[in-house]
Amino acid sequence: MLETSQPPAYYLPLADTDTGLLRPSSRSTFCEWKGAAQYFDLVVDGEVVHDAAWTYPSPTERFRSIVDHLAVYPQRVEECSVDGERVDANAGDFYGGWITSRVVGPFKGAPGTLGW
């Protein structure tokens, strides 16, 4: 999904993920465009990565296509890739965009950029 001043965020079908590695988090946020997001911790071999992924269980009508999809913060996991290319993560800890050689900034996320 392309969003203003951000690299794309990839929303993966829940059916294609190992949901057994996910634990609901207490975190939630609200996007003026998509609605309320719920977060998940990633738990692998007893290690917990807090708020590693999020979903919009009931997004606004315009974003219905992301129902039953999950997005992952590349900065919170070991590695993400697109077509074999390792992804660079957005600066900061709020935006979950995936930066590849085909994506050009500047991007929100670094200090001083949240008000763009």
Topology of this protein?
Layout lengths: L10 E3 L8 E10 L3 E10 L2 E9 L13 E4 L8 E2 L2 E2 L1 E2 L8 E2 L17
Antiparallel strand pairs: 1-5, 2-3, 3-4, 4-5, 6-7, 8-9
What does this structure look like?
- The structure is a single chain.
- It is built from no helices and 9 strands.
- By secondary structure, it is mainly β.
- The chain has one domain (11-99): Beta Complex (Metal Binding Protein, Guanine Nucleotide Exchange Factor, Chain A), CATH 2.170.150.
- The strands form 3 sheets. The protein has a 5-stranded antiparallel sheet, with no helix packed on it. Strands 6-7 form a two-stranded antiparallel ribbon.
- The relative contact order is 0.21.
- The mean pLDDT is 93.
Specify the helix fraction band.
under 10%
Oligomer: single chain
CATH level 4 superfamily = Domain of unknown function (DUF427)
CATH class: Mainly Beta
Task: Determine the strand fraction and express it as a percent band.
Answer: 35-45%
Question: How far is the N terminus from the C terminus?
Answer: 19 Å
Q: How many E-type strands?
A: 9
Supply the helix-strand structural class.
mainly beta
Mean pLDDT: 93
Spatial strand arrangement across the major sheet: 1-5-4-3-2
Judging by the overall fold, what is the CATH architecture?
Answer: Beta Complex
Helix segment tally: 0
The value of Rg in angstroms is: 14 Å
CATH structural fold name? Metal Binding Protein, Guanine Nucleotide Exchange Factor, Chain A
The biggest sheet, with number of strands, parallel, antiparallel or mixed sense and barrel status, is: 5 strands, antiparallel
Low-pLDDT segments, ≥5 res: none
Shape: globular
- Total domains, how many? 1
Order of helices and strands: EEEEEEEEE
